[in-house]
Design goal:
By secondary structure, this protein is an alpha/beta fold. Helices cover about 40% and strands about 20% of the residues. The strands form four sheets. Strands 2-1-3-4-5-6-7 form a seven-stranded mixed beta sheet, sandwiched between helices. Helix 1 crosses helix 6, helix 2 packs parallel to helix 3 and helix 11 runs parallel beside helix 12. The chain is globular, with a radius of gyration of 22 Å. The chain starts with 8 loop residues before the first strand and ends with a helix.
Length: about 425
């Protein structure tokens, strides 16, 4: 058991170093840094995104600050790219080894990756704890328990391995804040480095996702029901960020326009203030996508949008449990053509039910309906995560035999009706 007296010195490390397609500002880690400070602790923030020697950077931070606890924010397990797969947790292992060699302070893991596979990661990196609930609530409470040498075995939102057995405490049922946070990114990050590489500033108007796509992990990370931020507080957050020079704002909700009423209210609130920001969102669902929404987005200050289709073929959309049909896809294309906001179209080929015919149907849609000047992104193969419906499908089809505890390294699903070589050739023709 660790014994400290408040305030504790906390070294918070953002471990994400993936620069593609552009570096992502660590919104969660910055929010947690603020939360720990509000709880009375002294926080030192180390962002490894642009570090030339991350291990040396960690060593220097440990030697200088001598922290009482170290938090590691882990955004991604891998890059979700079947063609050029990168597994990021080997770096996490090295970082933890560096920390262990220099301090006996407790190591606390958090971030989206821990929401997806907490047990597998904790077994990969032993003698650590994990925050798997709302970090801004759980992390300060966990620090309080540690500082007073109290047990955290009953603390909601915490996971750990005890005597070889994985323990995960249930998350908080209450305590969600409806105020949209706007972290002081300038304080914690090298914002000029991010902006020089076209990074946008992330803002969430809600957490959670009401959809049930077969491959998705949002339910594990944020929950299966939407918790909404107050629209006026979203506008205030954008106004505050833009006032500090962070004008390129991206809404990073799982789906921006669901529920539609909330998206409309957010747009109306943004239209009422002179925020001077350039807004975008790449996660629009075609089911609730119409001229009224896009007009509201134009008035709110959107300069870019993206529609996540995955496919334009009904058998595949049904196989992926997307919750919309090809008629919704075609209607969305007609709506986009009536407006001026640039649009990115995002496809994911190879899912359950995909055949050569369905691939051609999607590619024909893209060739016919996507406006000149807009862009389309085609990804092939779907990352299989334990606990998802896609895992069950892959096992039923005989494509997956590994037990769930061995699925940390990336595994991808491609419909058995497809040949990977043929699929690559078809994509090269587009």
């Amino acid at each position: 058991m660790f014994t400290y007296h408040q305030p504790m010195k906390i070294l918070l490390i953002s471990t994400n170093r993936n620069l593609l397609p552009m570096p992502v500002m660590p919104i969660g880690a910055c929010i947690i840094a603020h939360a720990a400070e509000r709880a009375g602790h002294i926080v030192y923030f180390l962002d490894l995104m642009f570090s030339k020697d991350p291990q040396a950077g960690i060593e220097a931070a440990l030697a200088r600050w001598k922290p009482d606890a170290v938090g590691l924010s882990v955004r991604n397990i891998d890059n979700n790219d079947m063609r050029g797969t990168l597994f990021f947790l080997n770096d996490l292992l090295r970082y933890v080894d560096v920390i262990r060699n220099m301090t006996s302070a407790p190591i606390i893991l958090g971030g989206a990756a821990l929401g997806v596979m907490p047990e597998q990661i904790l077994r990969l990196v032993p003698d650590t704890l994990a925050v798997v609930g709302d970090g801004e609530m759980v992390f300060p409470l966990l620090l309080e328990r540690i500082s007073h040498s109290k047990s955290f075995s009953d603390l909601p939102g915490v996971a750990y391995i005890e005597d070889g057995v994985f323990q995960r405490n249930s998350s908080f049922a209450t305590g969600f804040s409806s105020t949209c946070p706007a972290p002081d990114y300038h304080r914690w990050l090298n914002t000029p480095a991010y902006l020089s590489q076209m990074a946008t500033v992330p803002v969430q108007t809600k957490t959670g996702c009401q959809f049930n796509c077969v491959y998705c992990t949002y339910a594990k990370i944020e929950g299966s029901s939407c918790r909404l931020k107050e629209p006026d507080s979203v506008a205030d957050a954008v106004l505050q960020l833009a006032a500090t020079g962070l004008r390129d704002v991206e809404f990073v909700d799982s789906v921006f326009n669901a529920p539609l009423e909330h998206a409309m209210a957010v747009c109306a609130a943004l239209a009422r203030v002179r925020h001077n920001a350039r807004l975008q969102c790449l996660e629009l669902n075609p089911r609730d996508f119409d001229d009224t929404l896009v007009t509201a987005m134009e008035r709110a200050g959107f300069v870019g949008m993206g529609i996540t289709l995955e496919s334009a073929s009904d058998p595949v959309l049904q196989g992926l449990r997307k919750g919309f049909t090809s008629s919704d896809v075609h209607h969305a294309a007609e709506v986009v053509r009536r407006h001026r906001i640039p649009c990115a179209w995002i496809f994911l080929l190879g899912g359950p039910g995909e055949t050569r015919e369905t691939v051609r149907e999607t590619l024909q849609f893209a060739g016919k309906y996507i406006r000149p000047g807009d862009v389309a992104f085609f990804n092939t193969g779907i990352r299989i995560y334990p606990g998802t419906e896609l895992e069950a499908i892959a096992r039923t089809e005989g494509l997956l035999t590994l037990p769930a505890e061995e699925m940390l390294a990336p595994l991808f699903y491609v419909s058995p009706e497809l040949d990977a070589v043929w699929l690559d050739q078809e994509l090269k023709k587009t």
